[in-house]
Amino acid sequence: MPKRILQGTVTSDKNDQTVTVLVERRFKHPLLHKTVRSSKKYRAHDAENQFKVGDTVRIVECAPVSKTKRWTVLTEDAAASA
């Protein structure tokens, strides 16, 4: 099964080798037929501590790194930051 890749914004980089990424998704409400925004925070492994608050990054699923970390930062999304 392929690994999921999500795109989001770094909201916290206070922990060592960890960033918190806010991923927002949009979908059409089944009953109201209105576009709804839903967001979720993921904690991702950042080995070099290179990503800062406000960066747009891509994260990919991985094996558990710690109790809460199940994602790894793949790259910084250059298109969104430019």
TrEMBL record:
Keywords: Ribonucleoprotein, Ribosomal protein, RNA-binding, rRNA-binding. One of its GO terms (molecular function) is rRNA binding. The keyword Cell wall biogenesis/degradation does not apply. GO terms for cellular component: cytosolic small ribosomal subunit. The keyword rRNA-binding applies. InterPro entries: NA-bd_OB-fold, Ribosomal_uS17, Ribosomal_uS17_bact/chlr. It comes from the Bacteria. GO terms for biological process: translation. NCBIfam families: PRK05610.1 (NF004123), uS17_bact (TIGR03635). One of the primary rRNA binding proteins, it binds specifically to the 5'-end of 16S ribosomal RNA. Belongs to the universal ribosomal protein uS17 family. Part of the 30S ribosomal subunit. HAMAP family: Ribosomal_uS17_B. This is Small ribosomal subunit protein uS17. It comes from Paracoccus isoporae. The lineage of its organism: Bacteria, Pseudomonadati, Pseudomonadota, Alphaproteobacteria, Rhodobacterales. The gene is rpsQ.
